[in-house]
Design goal:
The complex is a heterodimer of chains A (211) and B (589). With 211 residues, chain A is an all-alpha fold. Chain A has 10 helices and 2 strands, in the order ααααααββαααα. With 589 residues, chain B is α/β, with parallel strands linked by helices. In chain B, 21% of the residues lie in helices and 18% in strands. Classes of the chains: A mainly alpha (211), B alpha/beta (589).
């Protein structure tokens, strides 16, 4: 039933969404349908919340989030166009290639990653429970069940590219990304080690987006 | 058969806020400390994580974090002529249980009392003359002054990372803070939390009336903070699940976030959970404690000998522990003699609800437990009480702690209590109502006290504590006065309708008010009117210390936790620097 509903919604959105001309600048790196570039660090945009995408574009433009390529592109767009692009990508269906059903129990094999079973277990644990020894709370506390995202406050992680998630965690950790409210992500990332980052990034990459 | 255990230096009864701070101080100083906790261990991960922790039915309605009153209730009556009955369902106040104690489910509102509060009897007499008070009122001085406690308040706030704005730095009034506060030695460790819309409207209205609004001091932190124990805490996300819940984010200061990891790593400390302490044992002279007797979860009885016993239970349980142990003379309201159970007091809570049109959008669900804006212009003795016929007051504030769906549904007076009329009113007003909290003081009075219940017993066969309490006339007059001031602010905010709800007698245990029970093991300089001396040491059994809000001779206009934290460090200093070097009385009777 849920799948049927999603398919219907997805189909409705797909026919309605025509790329705005400015999307050409996005497609080169983020894929023709915003699916991201697997094994690269260009994130999937399709299905992400419009509010989140819009804020990132504003932050790239203002310099609150630092990325040479994205800052140049975002500065070239006015605020209306940024919002329009954000809404367009938010409405795109999650690419089928990523939307592979995976067991919600501890996954043993992961799409697009080379994670070991132990890594997968650790990623799952950090996502749903956290780690008391490191004083890290569960990612899902803010990012929603299965990392599905909470529209106005936290982006979706489910189905995001592992390499991108890992790169962002590292950049929060090093403080080179600092557009998180209340330093929330910098606090969490500073408590994680390399293995934790790989594990949790792989875990979320393996979950089909529930968009 | 009672199993005898090896003697230790210190037994701490109850591993909540006070117990974990004191145990850490003493274990770090090299003493062997055992902590006895009746509840379970619990930590931020995994016990406090989402989505389980946001279960309003389990935690709010069914009180999952509270003392188990199927095994250990409290009996209650309004007057001595009535028969007390067990409180079968916590409503009026919510004593917690388990590692971290009641602080796990607190709101994080972290105040200091004012200098005047610690010398209330003397200063009231000086300012308003002899005979100003109802003769039944039994307020008294604390035996300790604000200036003595200031460094300990400071240390406690820096332990918690409290977010706020100073109003008085070493005597210099600071813009944006509370100008009525007693001088503090430095700024809060972190800046105030963000102000919500209801707070902003309150601030403008209160300022327009000439009052002095300031941001509520909050131990739900405004930014990441690493405390002097080396423990890192996070920024609060305004999830709206503070009071009655545990924090999932390491953002609310509780023993789990600010001290337990350090304490539990110290080999001088041993935590034992599931241990129900039955009594403090005394030797044949009844002037020296030999240790404690407890029963574990398997029903086994143990005797734990100790050179020093510290009881740091929730206020009312401290009273009971002394009564069950035969320490100190029980209070008799008929004669006014005796001290244990005397001066039980509470908090006199009133509310003002301001109802707005639909263009004023409050979003009450975006909240921390302490992100309010308030005034102290009508708190304590910050206004002239001449001719008013009462002492004390209340802070008045837009203290919006939550908008949870089961329990939060403000409706104007006259709304039906159920059915379609009620549902329509809830829909209409949920997002357009600002609630003020009027957090009133509570005088102690002769008729209000606690003793052992003559009839009802707990699951271990020991008598329950019985509370006899009703609101003193002094406090009812105070509630009327401050509620009228609050309603004026509601009108100045431009509310379409303002409903003041001053606290009325009789006191009922069936409606939530506040978990600020005080008194019963009162501190002071006179053994005839206090259970413990100014260092919270028992007058009768000097190797027993009793620490809790039970030490307050009466209750002030603010939440009691900040003052209890200050007293805890005050006692820790006295133990380390005085008592443990030369055990014995710290003050001569």
């Amino acid at each position: 039933m849920k799948y049927v509903l999603l398919l219907l919604l997805g189909a409705g959105v797909a026919t309605a969404a025509t790329p705005p001309p400015e999307a050409a600048a996005c497609q080169a790196c983020h894929g023709a349908r915003g699916e991201g570039v697997v094994d690269g660090d260009k994130p999937r945009l399709a299905g992400q919340s419009a509010h989140y995408l819009d804020k990132q574009l504003q932050d790239f433009a203002s310099g609150a989030r630092d990325n040479a390529i994205m800052s140049a592109i975002a500065r070239a767009l006015n605020t209306q166009t940024r919002s329009k692009l954000a809404a367009y990508y938010a409405a795109l269906p999650v690419p089928a290639a990523l939307a592979v059903p995976t067991s919600l129990a501890v996954p043993t094999s992961l799409e697009h990653t080379t994670a070991t079973a132990a890594q997968a277990g650790r990623g799952h644990q950090l996502a749903i429970e956290g780690a008391e020894g490191k004083r890290v709370q569960a990612c899902n506390n803010c990012h929603g069940p299965e990392g599905s995202g909470v529209a106005l406050s936290a982006p979706a992680l489910a189905g995001q590219l592992a390499a991108y998630l890992a790169a962002q965690l590292k950049s929060f950790q090093q403080g080179s990304r600092k557009n998180d409210a209340g330093s929330l992500m910098r606090s969490v990332a500073s408590q994680l080690d390399e293995a934790d980052i790989t594990a949790v990034a792989s875990y979320y990459a393996s979950i089909p987006s529930s968009h | 058969m009672v199993q005898q255990l090896k003697e230790v230096d210190v037994v701490v009864i109850g591993v909540g806020m006070v117990g974990s701070i004191l145990a850490k101080e003493l274990a770090a100083a090299g003493y062997k400390v055992v902590g006895l906790e009746r509840g379970s261990t619990r930590f931020t991960v995994p016990e406090f994580q989402s989505p389980g922790i946001h279960d309003e039915l389990r935690f709010d309605v069914r009180k999952a974090l509270m003392q188990d009153n199927t095994r250990e209730p409290v009996t209650f009556r309004n007057t001595s002529s009535q028969t007390g009955l067990p409180i079968r369902r916590w409503e009026s106040f919510l004593p917690g249980t388990g590692l971290g104690g009641s602080m796990v489910h607190w709101n994080g509102q972290t105040y200091r009392f004012q200098a005047n509060d610690f010398e209330l009897a003397t200063r009231t007499r000086e300012r308003y003359g002899q005979g100003f008070l109802d003769p039944d009122v039994t307020i008294q001085d604390w035996g300790v002054t604000y200036d003595e406690l200031e460094p300990h308040y400071d240390r406690f706030e820096y332990l918690l990372g409290t977010s706020g704005k100073a109003g008085n730095l070493k005597g210099q009034i600071q813009p944006g803070g509370d100008p009525h506060e007693s001088p503090r030695s430095r700024e809060y460790p972190t800046p105030p939390q963000k102000e919500h819309y209801s707070g902003a409207l309150f601030r403008k209205a209160a300022s327009s009336l000439g009052y002095h609004p300031f941001p509520q001091p909050s131990s739900n932190l405004s930014q990441p903070y690493t405390n002097p124990e080396g423990l890192k805490m996070n920024t609060c996300v305004f999830c709206g699940f503070c009071e009655r819940y545990a924090c999932e984010h390491y953002a609310k200061s509780t023993p789990q976030t600010f001290i337990l990891p350090v304490l539990l790593a110290n080999p001088n400390f041993e935590l034992r959970t599931g241990c129900q302490v039955q009594r403090i044992n005394l030797d044949s002279t009844k002037k020296r404690a030999t240790g404690v007797t407890y029963i574990d979860n398997a029903g086994r009885e143990f005797e734990q000998p100790a050179a020093l016993v510290i009881t740091c239970l929730f206020a009312i349980n401290n009273i009971r522990m002394l009564l069950l142990s035969g320490i100190g003379k029980p209070y008799d309201p008929a004669t006014g003699k005796g001290v244990v159970g005397r001066n039980y007091a509470y908090q006199t809570m009133s509310t003002v609800a301001s109802f707005f049109d639909e263009d004023v959008i409050v979003n009450p669900f975006m909240a921390s437990g302490a992100s309010g804006t308030l005034i102290n212009d009508f708190a304590g003795d910050n206004f002239d009480h001449s001719g008013l016929g009462f002492i004390g007051g209340a802070f008045i504030g837009a203290v919006n702690t939550n908008g949870r769906p089961i329990q939060y549904h403000p409706t104007p007076p006259g709304t039906p209590a159920w059915g379609k009329g009620w549902k329509d009113a809830v829909l209409k007003h949920y997002n357009h109502t600002i609630m003020f909290s009027l957090h009133g003081s509570s005088v102690s009075q002769r008729q209000n006290y606690a003793d052992l219940d003559p009839t009802y017993k707990d699951a271990w066969g020991q008598p329950l504590l019985r509370i006899t309490f009703d609101f003193p006339k002094n406090d009812l007059k105070m509630a009327e006065y401050v509620t009228a001031r609050g309603a004026e602010i509601g009108k100045a905010m431009g509310a379409k309708q303002v409903a003041g709800n001053p606290r009325k007698a009789p006191y009922t245990t069936q409606q939530y008010q506040t978990t600020h029970n005080t008194g019963g093991t009162v501190m002071g300089n006179d053994p005839g009117t206090s259970v413990v001396n100014r260092y919270l040491q028992s007058w009768d059994v000097p190797n027993v210390f009793v620490i809790g809000a039970s030490a307050y001779p009466q209750n002030a206009s603010w939440n009691p936790t900040g003052t209890l934290g200050a007293l805890t460090y005050w006692v820790a200093d006295a133990l380390k620097n005085k008592y443990l070097k030369n055990p014995g009385r710290l003050v001569s009777p």
